[in-house]
């Protein structure tokens, strides 16, 4: 496809030696980056690698400390988002930033409504929106309010807005994080359409698997530096992983411990209309069971149904050989279950409280002074919280801090400490390393491995295939509410699992 | 990255601003009290001080119960109505000849029952707290009207009933002691019991609380029952101090109670409703009114000034809250 040595093409956008510092730390350290017309250029990097800083500088939100930005070979200073817009750069962020109550047409032409003496003519607006050259074909009415559209339809609106602004490079930030498999296909079709018109796409993501289907070139950032830019044909998933993380895939994960023969958790015929179909599952003591699958495959629904957070229609939950009635999180906790939700900010953390209180929240009974005098003892609380935190590696000086000031990694450690403190024997972790930098991720892998070695059973849900393959003993692949595949991690490898998922997509 | 201490210039200014914001209400209180003490000779007498203590009593009882509700994230607009109904119930029973303790017990049960009703409708049925308690207030006031047939009940009330609302023990008004005792009990529940911790969790993040095994419904119900119970106590003390009951007695305390709680949420623990903050709020409101009365400020101006105090407190806490978040 694209030859790196082809010097006849002029890059639309070029970035040379970009440096950006925040509070004496370099978020970007002499980064070079270029984008050619009609290419899909994937920008990969872990959390904290510098991707969003780079994008924000190109968008005019931040100003670089050093370095140049060239558009069509000419040096430019981009001092505001409006300027980047006029230079032909379009940006679609994860949150889309469309106005929900306004219609599609109004969003596409936001800020540029055709007006007659200051009054907007709605008919003209829709006509103009419909008549945008090279726009993505859309099947829904241009007068629909954006909030009534699905996520992929909203993305198309955002893309058409960028097209209407004559964007020659469109930056897409984590586009697939909330799309189902079919919707991802639609998005990729839209991207192909854009390519054919000569528009370049910069596709920012931290998920390796998708780019193989869509990207032409890949640039990997790590710790603010550009590691490499390479054509996709010269890469494989293991190489990319190593570039992103800086370590060989195998060295990132602790060695797997032994799985015991007795089952701590067994699920039989769990059903939830529309979401889960006859799930059968066994979890042994000391085992890390990975649960892979795309968005919408039902993994979080399964986790919540097992934990009693959502009602199930039918199914048995058997804990340590005994049939147990789990109808609420309270029941689940009594039986030794625990649940770390996907979105820790809205479902896991008590932002007004400090770390100690966050840790002890599921184990309040342990804080009582005395059996007959049910008063909470501050000293006991600190002691118990410290013990749990020590296991997760949370530093002691953070304990009295309000939890909202902690980094993502430390917040997650605090949530895990909560369940250690509650004495859980079965851990259900939903995307435990989301939004966490690599160093903290490794710490969590080691913690999970330690817990398993001590006899706990762990269900590890993740969209990051590399992670699932690296940490689990066994892997279940879910799709559309059912378990489709079961693999022994030792007998497979990352490439095979990836192929299985992709093959399944094609099926 | 955890937030390290900023080495930027001007960090001292930020810190002192935050301190000012956190303690702003207390500073206002001290400033107000000092100003009145210096400028108004009748303010700084022992008599007036005891008077003040007594005046904080009823507002404090209302506000402490309301704080519980606000803490779990709900509203209770029916507190005034519950007080009125309770006062009417107790007065009616006394007038009919029942003994004091029994009448008071019936009054307290009334408060608990209405709190229970509020709690079931809001926490279990899922109605909006605002709308539900607004409606309950109307129902309750209607029942009070029905009992009294529009007039107030004052005959047949034994003199000893007045001890609660008018009596003194070692020069300290008994109603203040009731209010302060109630405050200490509820503060203790909030700070040192599992239930209090659970309520704070629900107010902070009810989804997360549920996932920690906390029964959100049960605790919200409890909060409404405490609010109802406190309103009932307030109604009884009020009826005792006036030695009569009428179907709207106590309804005027609603706004001041909310005001006190919100001033409390602007004090020290910004953005959270807590008992000692409410206490500061009550004192501010009462001291302000007391001073203004001595100054013989006309009624409408008093309401304006109360509003301005509340506005400043909430604005200041909002600004500080935003700075803290950065």
CATH architecture tag of the largest domain in chain A: 3-Layer(aba) Sandwich
Largest sheet of chain A: 6 strands, mixed
The total count of strands of chain A amounts to 24
Oligomer: heterodimer
* Helix content estimate of chain A: 25-40%
**Beta strands of chain B, count:** 2
The number of helical segments of chain B is 13
The Cα radius of gyration of chain A reads 25 Å
Distance between the termini of chain B: 14 Å
Share of β-strand residues of chain A: 25-35%
Rounded mean pLDDT score of chain B: 88
Major sheet size, sense and barrel closure of chain B: 2 strands, antiparallel
Helix content of chain B: over 70%
- Widest beta sheet: strand line-up of chain B: 1-2
Note the run of SSEs of chain B as H and E.
HHHHHHEEHHHHHHH
Structural summary, described in words:
The complex is a heterodimer of chains A (507) and B (326). Chain A has 18 helices and 24 strands. Chain A has 507 residues and is of the alpha/beta class. Chain A folds into three domains: 13-252, P-loop containing nucleotide triphosphate hydrolases (Rossmann fold, 3-Layer(aba) Sandwich); 263-336 and 425-507, P-loop containing nucleotide triphosphate hydrolases (Rossmann fold), CATH 3.40.50.300; 350-424, no CATH class. In chain A, the strands form six sheets. In chain A, strands 6-9-10-3-11-12 form a six-stranded mixed sheet, with helices on both faces. Chain A has a six-stranded mixed sheet with strand order 18-21-22-15-23-24, with helices on both faces. In chain A, strands 2-1-4-5 form a four-stranded antiparallel sheet, covered by helices on one side. In chain A, strand 9 (169-173), helix 6 (181-196) and strand 10 form a beta-alpha-beta unit. The radius of gyration of chain A is 25 Å and the shape is globular. Chain A starts with 12 loop residues before the first strand and ends with a helix. Residues 1-5 of chain A have low confidence and may be disordered. Chain B is mainly alpha-helical and 326 residues long. Chain B has a domain at 57-251. Chain B has helices at 11-39, 46-71, 79-95, 100-125, 129-148, 163-166, 174-192, 194-204, 206-211, 216-242, 253-264, 275-294, 299-325, and strands at 168-169, 172-173. In chain B, helix 3 crosses helix 10 (216-242) and helix 8 crosses helix 10 (216-242). The longest helix of chain B has 29 residues, at 11-39. Chain B starts with 10 loop residues before the first helix and ends with a helix.
